[in-house]
Design brief:
Elements (H helix, E strand, L loop, with lengths): L1 H8 L2 H21 L9 H22 L4 H26 L9 H5 L8 H23 L15 H15 L10 E4 L12 E4 L4 E5 L7 H12 L5 H13 L4 H22 L1 H9 L3 H16 L5 H14 L11 H27 L1
Parallel strand pairs: 1-3
Antiparallel strand pairs: 2-3
């Protein structure tokens, strides 16, 4: 299967047409309209099954001690066969989506290496939009927002919005991807993740302890994975576009605040002075939300942050994403390219209109 993955990396057009929009779409529909209706997150079922199998294996090993060298060779062979099967299922069920044509190419987004001026513009515009959306939620309130501002069934509210976003950009979302909140709170965050998509059960997962203002974009991000996008920056992009255009002000607020935070990271790297100016200009209400987010992250801090970063960064690079963990931040470049495309299209339309007149 690894040979297929290597071949696929050189044939993104074939993967796009026959796998992402073909085989994977079929798998997505079959799962979602059968097992996807389960009221119980399949992650719990998977973990319980693995624990049962492990306990059974340990029991059998203790009961049948001895066996010599041949027994250990047999066990090693069985283990390697199991690993091979897991890898094969991963790529067949979802993993080959890493090799599809990039969204930047399909949307015709200009490749951008933003400078401090462009980043400052994006930071300022994002904060203006965030403050506008927050005012619709809470008026002049200066206390941190809570989970009360979120819709009761956020998954049902966000799924059709993401599907409409994908369709309007030339993609055909198949199925009805589930993203489940996982408890106890902090179980994913302690392992270095706020959300995760697991191909073996075709579902996304969201840590129940995540700060409420991060939940809309994180849920949409994981849902985008489920619709066949592997790259982290791309899923952040779809989360931003979807939530920033939503009717609910809390979804728009979450989107603009997410983009602001990513753009601020890049701005700090290029211009610490501009970063400090932008940081001081944040309104009291948004400042309280940012402080609450920081405190929430500390409450559920990762147990092994450096190890998590090394493992997941290596995994992403192994899938052909050379930036590794830095790929999350590519949403900044994609949004800038997206806005430039929109400006160019509007200008062309205006010129055509004047010509026709």
């Amino acid at each position: 299967m690894l040979g297929v993955k290597t071949w696929a990396s050189s044939h993104p057009e074939i993967i796009e047409r026959y796998y992402s929009r073909g085989v994977f779409a079929g798998i997505r529909n079959i799962w979602d309209y059968t097992l996807g209706f389960s009221p119980v997150p399949w992650l719990y079922v998977l973990l319980m099954s693995l624990l049962f199998v492990l306990a059974y294996r340990i029991y059998k090993a203790r009961k049948k001690q001895g066996g010599g060298k041949g027994k250990w060779i047999s066990r090693a062979g069985s283990f390697l066969a199991f690993i091979g099967g897991v890898v094969g299922v991963f790529y067949l069920s979802w993993g080959l989506n890493y090799q599809r044509i990039s969204v930047e190419t399909q949307l015709g987004l200009q490749e951008i290496d933003p400078d401090s001026t462009q980043l400052a513009y994006l930071v300022l515009n994002s904060m203006v939009q965030a403050e506008k959306a927050r005012y619709e939620i809470a008026g002049d309130d200066t206390t941190a927002l809570t989970s009360k501002v979120l819709p009761k069934d956020m998954e049902a509210a966000l799924r059709p919005k993401l599907e409409a976003t994908l369709e309007s950009h030339g993609f055909s979302p198949n199925g009805r991807v589930r993203v489940r909140e996982i408890y106890p709170k902090g179980i994913l965050m302690r392992l270095g993740a706020t959300g995760i998509y697991i191909p073996f059960i075709a579902e996304g997962h969201l840590d129940g302890g995540l700060h409420p203002i991060k939940k809309p974009t994180t849920m949409t991000h994981e849902m985008a994975h489920g619709y066949g996008f592997g790259d982290e920056g791309t899923c952040n992009f779809w989360a931003y576009v979807t939530c920033s255009q939503a009717e609910e002000p809390v979804h728009r607020y979450a989107a603009h605040l997410m983009l602001w935070r990513y753009a601020m990271r890049d701005l700090y790297r290029l211009s610490p002075a501009s970063f400090e100016r932008m940081k001081r200009s944040v309104s009291p209400g948004v400042r309280q939300d940012l402080l609450a987010m920081r405190e929430n992250s500390r409450r559920y801090a990762s147990l092994f942050p450096q190890l998590n970063a090394i493992i997941y960064g290596s995994y992403l690079k192994g899938q052909g994403i050379s930036e590794g963990l830095a790929s999350y931040n590519r949403v900044v470049e994609m949004v800038l390219g997206y806005e430039m495309r929109a400006t160019s299209m509007a200008s062309s339309a205006s010129q055509r209109s004047r010509f026709e007149q």
